[in-house]
Automatic annotation (TrEMBL), chains A, B:
Mg(2+) binds at D9, D11, D205. Divalent metal ions. Mg(2+) is the most effective. CDD domains: HAD_Pase_UmpH-like. One of its GO terms (molecular function) is phosphatase activity. Substrate binds at K180. It comes from Pseudogracilibacillus auburnensis. This is 4-nitrophenyl phosphatase. Keywords: Hydrolase, Magnesium, Metal-binding. It comes from the Bacteria. Coiled coil: none annotated.
């Protein structure tokens, strides 16, 4: 446990669907009691930070909204950093809308500087059409994350990468993606945690998002085998995680 | 006018949005009065053949449903030819639903053999999710056409290629496309018109759909400059249309 701070994935690392993951609660309790800086980083843009705190609480994991960085919040911070007065058209759920409201950005469907697309399970043709027209008129196209599919109790359902593909196909314009494995969310995370990148470890279960995000950001990585990726998945990749552990209990036993 | 039969595009060739195109009415009147075989071929899957006949009538063009091949009808015929008892999940509008009902195919969302996607301006996340799950369970993925965008009075709005991209991204499965420039709709057209391909001319305004459909099907092509593609668009292409004319009036003056 030789790092001064931790960036930690949620789904597959802290919980799996509605199931606890062994060691997660104990690990966060350790960080809390020793006042070790950490930040949960999730591509999920549909939940507010408050809702993430509540979800973690349901697994017995205690944290605060200041320890949560969703792709929604990272997107709002990124746009705010580019243009404080940005007029934004948003496709997305309460997590994304709330993040933009809290950032003091203008949400509108007229004369937009940005079109932001996050997972929206109330997507309509009118929303896709409006986004397409605004992008064709010159609005910059931003997507919270490129996840093609999301795991649910019913199976793998369309993720935000899927809705984003509808708009990029319609317009011929590729978006800027904010979420893991892209750098934008990681840069926002580094600002928030306030440590040098040598002192930070990125922990996650998904090689393609979490681990690549760490590798792209020059941050050491720990892949836990409690979620999506398996040891077999790593055989074909050239850039390996810094560490691979069965779970966070095994990590905590590292001296 | 040296061909025994004609395959004719609609939008940009017979009308443009709500506007008449010079010569279209006269050309079809000539075919009707001389009993020359012809078939309108459209990628639009949202309209029934009856609705297409009515739309043409609004421009003074007289025809019958037997002269209409929509991508909806071509898709239903294609699937019927593969599996008469096919169970089909359909995303689409009345034109697509009606084509499958008329073909006597089973429309359901359980244990499907096929998932068929056509433009649906009442698309929902649930429809995208259902399609994704069924394709992941092994249903064959068919799309009426790959048009990325459709011209409307409001501008270029998402076409069926855009909705299809959402599902192919979500599932990682590429569909079979039926509409122009693919061969499936052209093969259905050749069966319906009942002539050798040497005796048939494909007429359209869009190089990427109409003209390439003809070229792919080894049918002579006439590109009219009354719609989407321009002479400049042709500079970069290696496979040229057989003929290029300003409009159908110019074509009718060819001896």
């Amino acid at each position: 446990m030789q790092y001064k701070g931790y960036l930690i994935d949620l789904d597959g690392t802290m919980y799996r669907g509605n199931h606890e993951i062994e060691g997660a609660k104990k690990f966060i309790h350790h960080l809390n009691t020793h006042a070790i800086p950490y930040l949960f980083i999730t591509n999920n843009s549909t939940l507010t930070r408050e809702a993430v705190v509540q979800k973690l609480a349901s697994f017995g994991i205690t944290t605060t909204i200041h320890h949560i960085l969703t792709s929604a919040v990272a997107t709002a911070k990124y746009i705010k950093g580019q243009n404080k007065q940005a007029a934004c058209f948003i496709i997305g759920e309460v997590g994304l809308i709330t993040a933009f409201e809290e950032a003091g950005l203008t949400i509108t469907d007229q004369n937009c500087d940005y079109v932001i697309v996050g997972l929206d399970r109330e997507i309509t043709y009118d929303k896709l059409a409006k986004a397409s027209l605004l992008i064709r008129q010159g609005a910059q196209f931003i997507s919270t994350n490129s996840d093609a599919a999301i795991p649910t109790e019913a199976g793998l359902l369309p993720g935000n990468g899927s809705l984003t593909a509808a708009i990029s196909t319609s317009t011929g314009v590729q978006p800027i993606f904010v979420g893991k494995p892209e750098n934008i969310i990681m840069e926002e995370a580094m600002k928030l945690i306030g440590l040098d990148r040598d002192n930070v470890l990125m922990i996650g279960d998904n090689y393609e998002t979490d681990i690549l995000a760490g590798i792209n950001a020059n941050i050491d990585t720990l892949m836990v085998l409690t979620g999506f990726s398996t040891l077999e998945d790593l055989e074909a990749v050239t850039k390996k995680p810094t560490y691979i552990k069965k779970d966070l209990i095994e990590w905590m036993h590292v001296k």
